[in-house]
Amino acid sequence: GNSVTQMEGPVTLSEEAFLTINCTYTATGYPSLFWYVQYPGEGLQLLLKATKADDKGSNKGFEATYRKETTSFHLEKGSVQVSDSAVYFCALSVPGAGSYQLTFGKGTKLSVIP
Amino acid sequence: DAGVTQSPTHLIKTRGQQVTLRCSPKSGHDTVSWYQQALGQGPQFIFQYYEEEERQRGNFPDRFSGHQFPNYSSELNVNALLLGDSALYLCASSRDINSPLHFGNGTRLTVT
Predict the structure, then answer these.
(1) What contacts B62, CB < 8 A, 6 or more positions away?
(2) Most A CBs within 10 Å: which of B46, B101, B103, as the mutation test of the A interface?
(3) Interchain contact A57–B (C-beta under 8 A)
(4) Which among A78, A91, B84, B99 counts the fewest CB atoms within 10 Å?
(5) What 3-state DSSP class applies to B79?
(6) pLDDT band at A28 (very low <50, low <70, confident <90, very high)
(7) Can you give the pLDDT at residue A63?
(8) Cβ of B43 and A104 within 8 Å?
(9) How far out from the chain centre does Cα A68 lie?
């Protein structure tokens, strides 16, 4: 079956530190990959996505590259801010299921301290 | 332009009761999906509705059912509630199969 594994949290960083959140996946077919962010008390927001190997998704200073050979989609940001504190979810969707059926990882909580 | 709206925001029910959660999709969206997010876990796909029909279903029992109305809004019904049904229930809508999902803020269901 399909699954997503994320690094365990919580992750605590100082402002302006470098962020990496690891994500690996197992999927039948050739999935599309996503990062979603959930701020306290809110629903999920799409942060970035990639639909084929070597694609790089980017948004708000965050980046992730679709690595087929290592089945990974690690999230990175060069300099985090306090406002980046949230829970980050890696997710995939499989061919044929469209964008509607996402398989999520368990989430990684990020806390950024001033 | 309103996004995905869900009601109620919080709900407390007793074991064995039935519950109905509601969702209005973002304007211009015709497809609605429901997800269950247990505490400390990622969301899990329940089902998806398009053209008033259930199109896809995740690994959830028949106690979970839904409906989509002609105006694209949707309901999630859960019968015979169990303590394990306590979770945040998220509704998501999309314009089409190639567009990203837009999530609502969820309904927090507590079963006692």
Answers:
(1) none
(2) B101
(3) no
(4) B84
(5) coil
(6) confident
(7) 98
(8) yes
(9) 15
pLDDT at A99: 57
- What is the structure's pLDDT at A8? 83
Put simply, the answer to whether A100 touches B94 (Cβ < 8 Å) is yes
pLDDT digits (tens, 9 = 90+) for A3-12: 999 988 899 9
CA-based nearest residue in chain B for residue A32: B98
CA pair distance B35, A51, nearest whole angstrom? 22
CA nearest to B60, candidates B87, B39, B26: B87
Q: Which runs of E-coded beta strand occur in chain A?
A: 3-6, 11-14, 19-21, 23-26, 32-38, 44-50, 56-59, 62-65, 75-77, 86-93, 102-104, 108-113
| Per-residue model confidence (pLDDT) at position B6 | 97
Tell which residue, A26, A22, A34, A20, has the closest CA to residue A79.
A20
Is the Cβ–Cβ distance between B70 and B50 less than 8 Å?
no
Rounded CA-CA distance B56/B12 in Å is: 28
Q: Is A103 on the interface with B (CB under 8 A)?
A: yes
pLDDT at B112: 97
Best of A44, A49, A103 to substitute, by most chain B Cβ atoms within 10 angstroms, is A44
